[in-house]
Amino acid sequence: MKKPARRDGTPDRNNKKQRPTRSETGGRTRSETGGRPDRAEAAHRSGRPDATKGKPGRPDPAAKNKRGKPKSAKPQRAQAQAPKISNAKPARHQYADADRPAGPPQGDGMRLQKVLAQAGVASRRAAEELISQGRVEVDGRIVIEQGLRIDPENAVVRVDGVRVVVQKDLVHLALNKPRGWQSTMSDDLGRPCVGDIVSERVAAGQRLFHVGRLDADTEGLLLLTNDGDLAHRLMHPSFEVSKTYLATVSGALERGVGKKLKEGVELDDGPAKVDTFTLLDINEGKSLVRVTLHEGRKHIVRRLFDAVGHPVIRLVRTDIGAVALGDQRPGTLRVLGRGEVGGLYGAVGL
Q: How far apart, in Å, are the Cα atoms of 97 and each of 93, 102, 106, 316?
């Protein structure tokens, strides 16, 4: 049963439904109006933590460990940040140093020391020493800087003045042509020819040229290559590539024969002479001589000795420029060495 309000009009405090509102008290709290202070104000007065953050009057259990010491914060694992990706292209010369001297060109091509190593000149380290000593020449210019890149197919490289051939597909061979073999790649009459000796190489795709000719009765050194320019120059008389022969001639040669051959002999197609003449032996009515000449006309050695009255019995070509036959057996092939190849190119200005 509801208790009636007091006669003075004030509400009954025991009646919960008629408690004064904030608007009736002028916006003051209960503590201001003489009632109980709220929890926030009581916590502020007593110095205890707010009840809204924990139990009033008790310390936070996470703040201390069992021994009463402050608990250290647990180490947090570092989180790797995702890399930032930029699609922007840097400037081509963004970090260029204007005072830095320009080095050797670093464009397309192969490093010079690698080219020399592949050509069999020396190892890469030894090739670098050759370059630093100024012994390497590229296209007529001495190179001393390391790392120069060149085009192996077109660059002219020399070491100590000797041409270095660096093209991998070039072939240079020396053949000891036997007596009675034809200086042709094929023969319609079925006679043995040079092509029979190099048939396997030709079948494998190599296109070979024989440099000049030796008649069937002449034996000795014959060069073969797939460098047409080199073959043409070696055969052209304007380059005057020397050739050396051993000739066994009939009769004992008199002293004046050598002088006459060096001064020149008139032939049916013009005068001809030898560059050097050496008498090696006279035995049983035969003479062995060595002659060197740069003439390339057909049967020139035989015609010269016929003109002085001593026909040739046997003729062997032993040298062409820097290439020597040595003790190579008849009918065999060998690959020319680097010095020999360089000497041939140097002799014809390549």
A: 9, 10, 17, 65
